[in-house]
Specification:
491 residues; single chain; 3-stranded antiparallel β-sheet; alpha+beta; 17 strands; 13 helices
Length: 491
């Protein structure tokens, strides 16, 4: 008896996150238009919020699959292909990119994750200025790369080179705007020896070595900003600790920065000099300096296939999982944290408009690349094709076939067909007929309104998109405390 999990259609319209967006998006637009929220909502953020409300709905179009044996049909809804917060679409990209890295990019060697966070006053500018964030990312990667090279030279491995994959995450677990870097390094170096590439592992990493990388990177970043006239003096009064009051309750619109920044010329001013803080070691393989933090304790061995892919999925994960969002009876939204803060906080409550602003802030601007390759993993590196995993010969045949005798589609680049990705990630065969266990094939892409209506009536599915709640009007907020503040009354 086949006990593999069966495919079930995702229904985003039944989730709490969808309800928050559906019931508050028109109120958000109205509050911005009337000046109650002094923010600017960029076109790409507004577009993604609107598209999310159509994601996964059959009434917006679908693909029809049919079994040739018993003529059983299955409908698969189109997705919004969002890049910011949609759990389904970003989750698909997470699984596809991780699979691509494992099977076609990363050699079977140890991996180590380095996580760099920036000072609080820098985050607005870095979320908006992709070019500047890219330059600072390159500085950090070069600093860590130099540490790997020097360590190899100290062990007699001259001319060693390593490589890395950098993923830029934009938010913290409570959806506050927080651009930070997750860099997965090959935990060692490759070097040429007698015409061949040999691998030299990193070995045990010490906390002092992590601190040296941080000190070197911070020094170079400050020097780079000073040369460009982007570093200015100023009072740094913004909290930089995960246990401060900003997280305890004053959350009304902190993530309105970034993709929905406050209006005004201060947006384009330079980055403030971080408040000096001495080098500290809070945990093993973790260091902090002047508002920067660097963590390098997570790694996966070269033979740990599951661990390597789990690490990659972690760094590529969506900013918000649907099961972490809960609508409360008082109209507020609760976000459960992935892990408790040091003071015991396990969740944060906020007004729905605050969450929508944070969702907008999580959307990367167009042409802001969130995955970057460097070193021997860069596309221009002549060593990449040598160290990359080799596909089995069976997959390189002209017309490979599956175990059922069907022609197997060849993948190009990093794209994974939807059915292949579900099978690889969740062991779910979406092409398996639920009645006769025959093979289902794509019959049509249904996009015409009349055809959509005809099919959905036969399947008993809703014919219309869930209606958006109308604009609530002033004072807009669902929270009683924020309503009182907006009206100028005492809380």
């Amino acid at each position: 008896m086949d006990k593999r999990p069966q495919y079930e259609r995702h229904r985003p319209e039944q989730t709490s996150l969808y309800a928050v967006v559906r019931d508050n998006i028109e109120t958000l637009y109205g509050a911005i238009d009337e000046g109650a929220l002094d923010v600017r909502l960029p076109k790409h953020a507004r577009k993604e919020l609107d598209a999310y409300l159509d994601c996964g709905l059959l009434c917006r179009g679908f693909a029809r699959l049919r079994c040739d044996t018993c003529e059983e049909s299955r409908l698969v809804a189109f997705s919004c292909k969002g890049r910011g917060f949609c759990p389904s679409c970003v989750g698909r990209r997470m699984c596809a990119t991780a699979a691509h890295l494992i099977e076609e990019v990363l050699p079977a060697v140890g991996l180590r994750q380095w996580v760099l966070t920036f000072p609080f006053p820098w985050r607005k500018r870095l979320a908006h200025d992709g070019a500047l964030l890219g330059r600072l990312t390159r500085i950090f990667v070069e600093s860590a790369n130099a540490a790997y090279t020097k360590r190899a030279e100290d062990k007699g491995a001259e001319g060693g080179k390593t490589g890395s994959v950098t993923v830029i995450q934009r938010t913290s677990s409570d959806m506050r705007l927080n651009p930070h870097l997750h860099v997965v390094f090959l935990d060692g170096v490759y070097r040429e020896h007698e015409g061949d590439l040999t691998w030299n592992g990193q070995g045990h990493l010490q906390t002092r070595e992590v601190a040296d990388v941080l000190v070197h990177a911070v020094k170079r970043m400050k020097r780079h900003l000073e040369r460009g006239g982007l570093l200015e003096l100023g009072d740094d009064t913004t909290p930089d600790d995960e246990t401060d009051a900003d997280r305890q309750g004053a959350l009304l619109a902190s993530a309105v920065s970034g993709q929905a920044p406050p209006a005004g010329p201060q947006w384009l001013r330079g980055l403030r000099v971080p408040t000096p803080r001495a080098l500290a070691f809070d945990k093993p393989l973790c260091a902090s300096l002047d508002g920067f933090t660097l963590h390098a304790a997570t790694k996966a061995g070269g033979l740990d296939v599951a661990g390597r892919e789990a690490l990659l999925r972690y760094v590529l994960r969506p900013p918000l999982a649907q099961d972490r969002v809960e609508l409360l009876d008082d109209g507020l939204v609760r976000i459960a944290l992935k892990r408790a803060y040091a003071d015991g906080t396990v969740a944060v409550d906020m007004d729905p408009l605050s969450l929508l602003c944070r969702l907008a802030a999580s959307v990367p601007p167009p042409r802001h690349h969130v995955v970057r390759y460097s070193g021997v993993l860069a596309s221009a590196s002549p060593w990449r094709r040598i160290i990359a995993p080799k596909r089995p010969e069976a997959e390189e045949e002209t017309s490979p076939e599956t175990k059922d005798g069907e022609p197997k589609a060849k993948r190009s680049g990093s794209y994974w067909p939807w059915a292949d990705l579900l099978r690889r990630t969740f062991d779910v065969d979406v092409l398996d007929c639920p009645k006769c266990h025959g093979r289902m094939k794509l019959l049509a892409m249904v996009t015409e309104a009349e055809s959509i209506t005809r099919f959905l009536k036969g399947f008993g599915e809703p014919l219309d998109v869930p209606a958006r709640a109308p604009n609530r009007g002033p004072p807009f907020w669902a929270s009683t405390v924020l309503r009182q503040k907006s009206l100028g009354t005492a809380a």
